[in-house]
Amino acid sequence: MLIIAVAVAVTAVGIGRVADGIFTDLMQEFHIETDLLAGLFTASLARSLLITSLVAGAVGLLLSAVLFRAVTRPLRAVTTMAGRLAAGDYSARVEAPAVIEEVASLADSLNRMAQSLQSLERLRADLVANVAHELRTPLSNLRGYLEAVRDGVTAASSETLVLLHEEVMRLVRLVDALHELSGFDARAARPRRGPVDLEQIAQRQLVLRDAEFRAKGIEVRTDLHGIGPVSGDTDLLSQAVGNLLDNALKYTPPGGEVTMRVAREDGMAKFAVTNTGEGIPPQDLPFIFERFYRGEKSRSRNLGGAGIGLAIVKEVARVHGGAVGADSAGGATTIWITLAT
Question: How many CA atoms lie within 13 A of 316 on its CB side?
């Protein structure tokens, strides 16, 4: 505002001097007495310039206030949203202003960050609840059996010991899975890369589960294209392939079909498993690779799932420079992993 006022004042003084010089020259050229007329002209010009300067200053002040408000309002909104995020309110959002590109970009970035934080918080809450449930159920069963044996309600028969052993192994599997995931997080799982035959790994993992597929009457089909060796860690890739087959075995109904496919697509090696069954609801598809996420929790628990297997597949893909994906429609679900070659 001060700069505008100074500019107007300097301009007015300059115009006044130039006009006074021109007027004096004209009067002298025509031999007219200049003192009285020059005074009147100068006074009139000064009044005009003063009025013009005041009007220009008022307009500049008004425009400055409007511009200042237009800039500070979205910044205040962004500041308020940042405070809410810092306080743990991840539902906070801010409207991106259309007039200031930089502030709009900042608001859009904050909104996307808030969305990510909200998703992470929801997954964290689900993880805590699911881990607590997975631990509570076998521990409650163990406590119940042991108290029954202690109180003489149930005899310490071989059948009871088998049930106790099953609950203990359920805990062991959960702890082992958590340990694997923490290993990935701490970058402890450093892949020992070498030439790997993905097709051979797939066939080996299928043979290991052949009896289970037969027991459920599931027909398994293979679509293997000789893609040649890929660079990877045999143990990690065997685990990822096995987890995908276990997932299909778990969710394919008796008498269903499973198709295992190995191919090369877009310069990447791809392993995919398709199974028939109920399918995955669209709202759950983006989250099935998150840890402990299960769309139908009661159904997953009844089937023995802890929501860990696909999370491990995702981590194996990551350390191999690949990705994971899923598609579910028309009574068939396909889950795949891609690997950089």
Answer: 26
> For 293-332, how does the pLDDT look when each residue is reduced to its tens digit (9 = 90+)?
766 544 444 555 556 788 889 988 988 889 999 999 888 9
Q: Check residues 327 and 139 and name the one with the higher pLDDT.
A: 327
Place of tokens 């023995």: 304
- Inter-helix orientation angle 234-251/309-319, to 10°: 150
HSE-CB of 296 using CA atoms within 13 angstroms:
11
CA-to-CA separations, 102 to 71, 83, 107, 284, in angstroms, rounded: 11, 20, 9, 35
- Whole-number mean pLDDT of the chain? 79
CB 271 within 8 A of CB 262: yes
Rounded-to-integer distance, Cα 119 and Cα 313, Å = 20
Contact 313, 205 (CB under 8 A): no
Spell out the residues 6+ positions from residue 220 whose beta carbon is closer than 8 angstroms to its own: 206, 210, 213, 257, 258, 259, 260
The DSSP string of 15-72 is HHHHHHHHHHHHHHHTT---HHHHHHHHHHHHHHHHHHHHHHHHHHHHHHHHHHHHHH
Q: Which residues of 229-245 are buried (b: 16+ CB within 10 A; e: fewer)?
A: ebebbbebbbbbbbbbb
Phi first, then psi, for residue 314 (nearest 5°) are: -60, -40
pLDDT at 143: 87
Which pTM was predicted? 0.56
